C-alpha cells in the first residue's frame, strides 16, 4: 500500500514537474508573442500616423490646387467674357458698317457716287463713300453752270445753260427764254410760269443780287404743276351748290338792306324842317295854317304831325292816343324787311354748316373708294366744307350788323316822330291858338 502510495506520489510529482515545465515554456512563448505583437502594433501605429500625415498633406495640397484652379477659372471666364464683348462689338460694328454702306449706296447712287456694300474691305469702301459724300457736298452747296435743256411754257424744248443753286433750285438761260426752272419729272426741267429773268441773268453772270425770284424744289423725279392763281370765281365754285344758294340769299339780303335804307331815308327826312314850319305857323298864325303849310310834305313824320294838327283841339290824353296810333301805323313801314334780314343773317351760317357736312361726307366717300394716297382727290370735298362755312359767315356778319343798325335807325325815327308831335302839342297849348 505504501509502495503504491509512494508510487502514486512519485508519479504525481513527476506529472506536476512536467506540467510546470510546460507552463513555463508556454508562458515564455506567450510573453515573446506579446512583445512581438506590441512591436508590431507600435510599428503599425507609426505607419498609420505617417500615412495619415501624408494624406493630410496631400489634401491640403489638393485644396491649394483647387483654390488656384478656381482663381484661374475665374480669370479665364473674365477673359472669355471680354473676348465675347469684343466679338459682339466687332460683329455690331460690322453690321453698322454694312448698314451705312447700304444707305450710302442708296443715297449717293442718284448722284453718280458708286458704293459697293459687298467689298472685301468694308472700312476702305466706307472711307471711299465718305470721300464721295464730301465731294458731293461741295458740289451741291455751290452755284454751278451746266449745259442742258429745259421745256418752255408751250411744251417745246430750249437748249442753253442751266444755273444750278446746289440741288434745290435752277435757272435756265437760252435764246428763247430765261427764268427759274421747276422739275418736269425724270430729272428734267421746265420753265416756271413766274417771272425770274433778272434773277436768272444775274446768277448766270455770277452776280449776287440782294433779292432773287426762286423756285425751290425737293427733287427732280416728280413733275411740279404750274401754280394757278385762285380767283374769286374759283373760290365760289369750290363751295358747290350750297355756296351759290348762300350767295343768292346774301344778294337778296343786300337788296332788302338797300330798300330798307331807302324807306328809312324817306321816312326820316324833313323831320326838323316840318317841325320848324309848324312851330313858326303856330307862333305867327293858327293850327289850320300850319296844317296847310305841311300839307304837301311826304314822309312818316309829316303824316304824324298832320294827324296831330287835325286833332289839336281835342283834349291832351286823346291827342296823345292819336299820336301813338299814327306812330304805330308808320311802324309797319319803318320795320319793313327788318326781321327778314335778320332771318337771312341767321340762316346763312346754318347753310354754311350744311355745306361743311356735305363736303366732309363727299371727302369720306372719296377716301372709301380711292384711299388717302392722292390729296388732290380730297381737296374738292374739303374745299366745299370750308368755302361754304366762309360764305355763310361772310353773308351773315354784315347782314346781322347792318340789320341791327337799321333797326336802331327805325327806332330813332319813331322817337323823333313822337318828340316832334308832342312838341307841336305843347307849343299849341302854350300859345293857346
Automatic annotation (TrEMBL):
Record's bilayer topology term: Multi-pass membrane protein
Cited InterPro entries: ExbB/TolQ_transport, MotA_ExbB_proton_chnl
Gene Ontology cellular-component terms listed: plasma membrane
Annotated GO biological process: protein import
Domain of life: Bacteria
Coiled coil: 20-93
Regions crossing the membrane: 241-263, 340-362, 382-406
Localization in the cell: Cell inner membrane; Membrane
Span of domain MotA/TolQ/ExbB proton channel: 301-418
Keywords on record: Cell membrane, Cell projection, Cilium, Coiled coil, Flagellum, Membrane, Protein transport, Transmembrane, Transmembrane helix, Transport
Similarity field: Belongs to the exbB/tolQ family.
Protein name: Flagellar motor protein MotA
Organism for this UniProt entry: Sulfurimonas lithotrophica
Record lineage: Bacteria, Pseudomonadati, Campylobacterota, Epsilonproteobacteria, Campylobacterales
Amino acid at each position: 500500500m505504501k509502495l503504491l502510495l509512494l508510487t502514486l506520489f512519485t508519479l504525481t510529482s513527476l506529472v506536476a514537474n512536467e506540467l510546470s515545465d510546460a507552463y513555463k515554456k508556454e508562458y515564455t512563448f506567450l510573453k515573446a508573442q506579446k512583445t512581438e505583437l506590441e512591436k508590431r502594433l507600435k510599428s503599425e501605429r507609426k505607419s498609420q500616423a505617417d500615412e495619415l500625415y501624408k494624406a493630410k498633406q496631400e489634401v491640403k495640397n489638393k485644396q491649394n490646387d483647387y483654390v488656384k484652379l478656381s482663381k484661374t477659372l475665374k480669370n479665364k471666364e473674365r477673359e472669355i467674357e471680354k473676348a465675347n464683348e469684343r466679338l459682339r462689338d466687332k460683329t455690331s460694328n460690322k453690321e453698322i458698317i454694312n448698314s451705312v454702306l447700304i444707305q450710302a449706296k442708296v443715297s449717293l447712287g442718284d448722284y453718280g457716287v458708286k458704293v459697293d456694300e459687298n467689298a472685301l474691305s468694308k472700312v476702305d469702301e466706307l472711307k471711299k463713300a465718305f470721300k464721295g459724300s464730301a465731294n458731293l457736298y461741295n458740289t451741291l452747296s455751290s452755284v454751278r453752270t451746266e449745259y442742258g435743256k429745259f421745256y418752255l411754257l408751250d411744251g417745246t424744248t430750249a437748249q442753253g445753260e442751266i444755273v444750278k443753286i446746289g440741288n434745290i433750285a435752277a435757272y435756265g438761260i437760252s435764246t428763247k427764254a430765261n427764268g427759274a426752272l421747276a422739275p418736269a419729272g425724270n430729272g428734267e426741267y421746265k420753265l416756271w410760269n413766274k417771272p425770274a429773268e433778272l434773277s436768272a441773268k444775274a446768277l448766270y453772270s455770277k452776280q449776287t443780287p440782294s433779292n432773287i425770284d426762286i423756285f425751290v424744289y425737293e427733287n427732280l423725279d416728280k413733275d411740279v404743276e404750274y401754280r394757278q392763281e385762285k380767283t374769286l370765281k374759283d373760290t365760289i365754285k369750290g363751295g358747290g351748290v350750297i355756296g351759290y344758294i348762300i350767295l343768292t340769299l346774301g344778294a337778296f339780303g343786300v337788296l332788302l338792306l338797300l330798300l330798307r335804307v331807302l324807306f328809312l331815308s324817306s321816312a326820316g327826312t324833313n323831320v326838323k324842317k316840318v317841325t320848324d314850319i309848324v312851330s313858326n305857323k303856330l307862333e305867327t298864325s293858327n293850327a289850320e295854317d300850319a296844317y296847310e303849310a305841311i300839307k304837301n310834305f311826304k314822309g312818316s313824320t309829316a303824316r304824324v304831325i298832320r294827324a296831330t294838327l287835325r286833332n289839336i283841339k281835342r283834349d291832351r290824353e286823346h291827342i296823345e292816343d292819336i299820336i301813338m296810333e299814327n306812330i304805330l301805323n308808320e311802324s309797319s313801314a319803318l320795320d319793313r324787311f327788318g326781321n327778314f334780314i335778320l332771318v337771312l343773317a341767321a340762316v346763312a351760317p346754318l347753310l354754311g354748316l350744311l355745306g361743311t357736312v356735305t363736303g366732309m361726307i363727299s371727302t369720306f366717300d372719296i377716301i372709301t373708294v380711292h384711299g388717302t394716297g392722292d390729296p388732290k382727290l380730297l381737296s374738292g370735298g374739303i374745299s366745299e366744307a370750308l368755302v361754304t362755312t366762309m360764305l355763310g359767315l361772310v353773308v351773315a356778319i354784315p347782314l346781322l350788323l347792318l340789320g341791327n343798325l337799321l333797326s336802331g335807325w327805325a327806332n330813332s325815327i319813331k322817337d323823333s316822330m313822337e318828340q316832334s308831335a308832342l312838341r307841336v302839342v305843347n307849343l299849341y297849348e302854350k300859345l293857346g291858338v
